[in-house]
Amino acid sequence: MVTTLRDAERWIQNFNRPGLFAFTTMTQTALAVPVQDVGFQTAATSGSPDTLARLMVHNNKARHPIRVDLTALVGDSSTTGTVTVEYAGGSSTGSVTTTTAGPMASIVVTPSATHDMSSPNEVTIKGHAAGGGALIVVCGSGHLQPADRVDGGAGDDGYTPLYDIPTNGGIPTEWVGRGYNNMRSIARDRVACLATLVHAFNISRAGADWFTTSTTSRAMGRVFVMGCENVKRAGVVSFYMGLDTGPATVQLIAGPGNNTTHAIGSSGWIHQDIEIPKGGCFVTVYGAINTGHTGTLSLLALQVFRQGG
Amino acid sequence: MGYSGPARTQYIISGGLPIDLMQARTLLDPTPALLSLFTDIDRLQWGVFHDWGNPPTYINVETRDGGVTGSSGSIAAVDKVIAVKVEVPPMVTHANVCALTSGAIQVKIQEGTVDTTGILIQADTGAGAVSHLDIEAASIQWASGVSANSPAALEARAIKVNTEDQAQGITRTFTVVVTRTDVSPTFAGYGGMLWGLGFQWVRPPLDTFKPGTDTAESASV
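C-alpha cells for the assembled complex are given below, as produced in the milestone run.
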C-alpha cells in the first residue's frame, strides 16, 4: 500500500496538469457583418512584435513550466511567423512557415527563479512576421508542465515527494502526514481554469459586441462555468478591460449572489472573487463609458478559476 | 493517539471532495497505524486527479454560422468551419459537450484522431430577426440532452477524446462546423451565433491499482 500511494503520488505530481486556458480566435468582426474574421493576425516586425493575447495564471508557486500549444499559419510562403510567449519572467519562442493552419511545436516557458509568484502572473502571447506576409494564430491552449520529481525536499508549493520511504522499514508518522498534505498542496497550487474568453489585443474591432463607446451599459461577453462538483465552490474571475480614455464602469454578474461593479480609468486586469453554484453559472461582463465622457471600452480577456484556497 | 487539524470525515460524493477547505494535517508521535490514515491519502489522490484537478472547461468561440449560398429557389446553408484546441486530462476517454448558442444553428464537432464520427448539437434559441445574435438570449444546449450535473458515460452521447486508461493528458484539436438551420430553398433564414463550447470530462470506472509509475490509479477507492 505504501508503494502504491507513493507511485500514485508521483504520477499525480507529473501528470496533474490542469488546463490554464484554451481559446479559438475565429471571432466575428461585428454583429451586423456576417463575414467572419480569421484568427489573431499581425504583420509586425521583429523589433516591435504585437501583443496578440494576454492570459492569467493563478498560483503556481512551485514555478512549474507552462506549455502553450498553438495552431497557426502565415499568409504566404515567403513569410516566417514567430510567436513569443512570456510568463513570470520567462520567455520562449516558436516559428511557423506553413500557409495552411497546423499545430506549431509546443512552446514551453519556465518561470524565472526570482519572479514573484505570490500574486497572479500574466501570460503574454506576442507575434511578428518576416517576409511580407502575416502571422495568423488560429487557436491555442496551455497547461502546467511539472517535471518528474522524487527528491529535493519541500517546494514552494509545500509539496515534498514521498519517495524517501525506507525499504522494508517502518512507516514514519511524518511520512503519513506528508502524503495527506502533499495532495492538499498540489490541489491548492495548481489552479485550473474553468472558462476562457480572449479577443485580439492588437486589432480594434469597432462594432463588435465586446467593444463599446456607449454610455449605456451593454453585455460585452459571457461565458458558461460548468458545475465542477455537487457543492458550491469559491472561484475567481480575472478579466482584462481595454480603455483608451474614460472613465468607464464595468459590472460583473456571475450567477446568483455575485454582482459587482468596478470603476476603471485605464486598461488592465480586474480580479473578482465569486461563488460558483453547484450547477455552474453564467459569467457576464457589462460595461459602459461613464456619462459625460467619451472613450472606447473593450473586453479583451476573461478567465474563471476555481480558487485553490 | 490523534492528530491536530480537522477531524477526518467520510468522503461523500454528493458533497464533493473539499480539498480547498482542508487544513494541513500534523500527526502526533506516536500515532497508531490506522488504515484510515492511508485511506485518507488515497481519497485525496483520487480527488486531485479527478474533477478537482481536471475540472470541465469552457471556451469562448463567438462565431456566426456560415451564411447561405444560391438565390431564391436554390438557397442553401454554408458551413462555417473553425478549430478549437483543448487540454484533455489524464484518464479521460470521452467528453460531454455543450454549446452556448443563440438563433437557429447546428454545431457539429469532430476530433480527427480518435473520433471522426463526432457529435451534433442543434439549437433554436431566440431564433428570428431580433435576438438571434444576442448573447443575452443565448442558452446552453447539451449533446443528446446530457445534463451538466449528471453526465452519462455513454459513448453514444459523448465525443471520444482518448483511448482507454491514458495515463497522460493530451492536447486535442476539434473541428467545429457551424451551420444555420432556419434556411429553406426560398428563405435565407437568420441563422445565429455559436458563443462557446463546454467540455465535461467522462472517465471510465476506476480499475484496481496497476503497477508502474505512470498508470497507477488508486489503492482503495
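The first strand of chain A starts at residue 19 and ends at 24. Chain A touches chain B through 84 residues (CB under 8 Å). Further analysis is deferred to the final report.
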